[in-house]
Amino acid sequence: MNKVRHVLGISGGKDSAALAIYLKNLYPLMDIEYYSSDTGKELDETYNLITNLQVYLGKSIEILKAAENSHEDPFDHFLSMYGGFLPSSNARWCTKKLKLEPFEKYVGNDPVVSYVGIRGDEDREGYISHKTSIQSIFPFRRNIWSEDVISKFLANDKIEENLTWLDAAGVGSRKNLFQETLLKPLSISYHEHQKLNQLLDIGVAETNQLIYSYLKTTDYPLGRDDSYFPLLQNEENLVRDDIFRILEESGVGVPAYYKKINFEVDGKTSSYARSRSGCYFCFYQQKIEWIWLYEQHPEMYRKAMTYEKDGYTWMQNESLEELITPDRMRQVKNDYAKKMEKVTSKQSNFLLDILDEEEGIGCASCFI
Ligand code: SF4
């Protein structure tokens, strides 16, 4: 059997970078491989972050490039293959070709535990590989396990078996509480997440140990790994502010595009930023982020414009050329400034709360 590999994908965004730092600080003995999928279209800030991170980790980050023998950037190579058809949320060939396929080639058929930086304040699962040899773990969440593991562990036909792990899980005086909860069958009115949360409320480390015991009976990579898995003891739940703190305290820093920049519109002052890493022309960005790109990185905006031809545009119903007419820019900025005024929490120096709400959508799930 191949050795189980532990990998962490660096997207160039804040969460995966903070996760790498967090795991290194807490569990320095874990042997983690770092990789990053380069589309060839990232902002300079992303490349700077990767450089800083390598210094901090004392390890190199393997850069995965799709179509590595092509004379073009990975994105341009596949764009030509797709006849200039720009990717969109409905046809996201870029994620598949530039991120997923290089990742699956990198890990091959090795059993792999992949650490994913989804935070405790996010409600999404991220990418779950169709390959059973890849298992995702979410160290920032109280529930570190992926949905598929939880579903199998909590299945009603596993109840009796799960009870047999209790003594080895070190549940001590809470044995009765665990027993009672484990014995409750799932039903229409008693869902998986309710049962899981009840178990976690009784004891996180003990619940982790129960799930780990179950995994030992399966082909999941962690079930086949004989080395000690320190995350079983981790009871933390990290949210957005923790991520910024980790990045700042480490000295790696927060990518500059998260920092708020003031702008004026019709006598009012508001501020904007970019909420995501990834390609500078990512179709998931909001209109105000496109305007940020136009005003902060005009050369990149112009490059993004050159991709819009033959009727293809990055946004539905509006081209980049139309977006930067003075009236339209004013309108977008005004709409955005109004939304911002309604946001009550304005504590973060780095990220606009409105943008952050959207951050988890789409684009982030292309970072595995
Ligand atoms: S960042 Fe956006 S454009 Fe780039 S690969 Fe991901 S989804 Fe596609």
TrEMBL record:
Residues 6-125 form the Phosphoadenosine phosphosulphate reductase domain. Coiled coil: none annotated. It comes from the Bacteria. Gene3D superfamilies: HUPs. This is Phosphoadenosine phosphosulfate reductase family protein. The lineage of its organism: Bacteria, Pseudomonadati, Bacteroidota, Sphingobacteriia, Sphingobacteriales.
